[in-house]
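Thread: "does anyone have the structure for this chain?"

Original post by V.I.:
We have the sequence but no experimental structure in hand. Need at least a predicted one for the grant figures.
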Amino acid sequence: MFERVLSFLRDLPAGGTKSNADDPRVAASALLYHVMSADGVRQDVEWERFKKILAESYSISGRELDALAAAGERADNEAIDLYAFTSVLKRHLDAEARKAFIGLMWQIVYADGELHELEDNTVWRVAELIGVERRDRVEARREAAAEAPGAHGTSSDE
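Reply from O.Q.:
Generated one for you, tokens below.
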């Protein structure tokens, strides 16, 4: 299941001549980093999940993985809002890939076994901006929660 969800990211083009703001890999990394940091606490288990998703999505490791993670963190820290990233993903991903991306966000949210309201709100906003419907967002959340042993918390979606 995890491999199938991640496969869409492998098809995103590398940065090449684009600025980081227009690079879908950096945009995806920035949004994943953003949801990980939404509750104000970046736990090691969340950071490991974030890096694992990037590594498996792009078949990268080592310095290349560290560079993409750092680029996502830097882009998120410099961003005024989420639109710069969501607009890039909306242009580069089809509807199924956008739903899968929301699933990846939920996996990071539940990596620590908890759902914080700021994380829930972040995923909701990203889903709205990339055109993922409520029922698909809720289903992706339920799947991620079911895969996270000991997960707890509630959402306004239920």
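V.I.: this helps a lot. The chain has a mean pLDDT of 86.
O.Q.: and The two ends are 24 Å apart (CA to CA).
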